[in-house]
Write a structure and sequence with these properties.
alpha/beta; four-stranded parallel beta sheet; globular
């Protein structure tokens, strides 16, 4: 039996896009028109999911973009990159629950354990924060109360 494999693509939300590696193209700047076209073409060409990245530079907000593009697509899964710690857990839980409704259960979360701007944390500290954050997020998404210290 062959394992199932998903094939994914990348929407250039954070930065500019390139037709040729290292050669910036003004027409491929991060914008709603360009990025939504990427996702719609990925769906049209049979890709299973598309990564909606999160970055610190000014670009398209991945969460807002995922809500909008979900209404224009039907099959492709939306792999939303989330920097854990950037939002408070209840706010992220509400956003995910709402997006999951808008996307008709096509939302997938890519948890990012990065430092926040100005932080200098060890890998161990970042992953401990990720573990706690994902636990609290899961509990809230299941409708349970969370009481954490730290």
């Amino acid at each position: 039996m062959r394992p199932s494999v998903e094939v994914a693509w990348f929407a250039a939300l954070c930065d500019d896009d390139y037709e040729f590696l290292g050669v910036a193209d003004e027409d491929l700047q991060s914008s709603w028109l360009h990025c939504s076209d990427i996702v719609r073409r990925a769906e049209l060409n049979g890709f299973d999911n598309v990564l909606l990245p999160s970055g610190y530079s000014l670009g398209i907000d991945a969460t807002a973009f995922s809500a909008a593009i979900a209404t224009l697509t039907n099959e492709i899964k939306l792999l939303l990159a989330v920097r854990l710690g950037e939002l408070v857990v209840p706010q992220l839980a509400r956003q995910i629950a709402t997006l999951q409704q808008i996307a008709n259960s096509r939302l997938v979360i890519n948890a990012i354990s990065s430092e926040m701007p100005g932080e200098q944390l060890s890998s161990e500290s970042r992953y401990r924060r990720t573990t706690e954050y994902l636990f609290a997020l899961g509990e809230l998404l299941e409708g349970r109360t969370v009481n954490l210290e730290g």
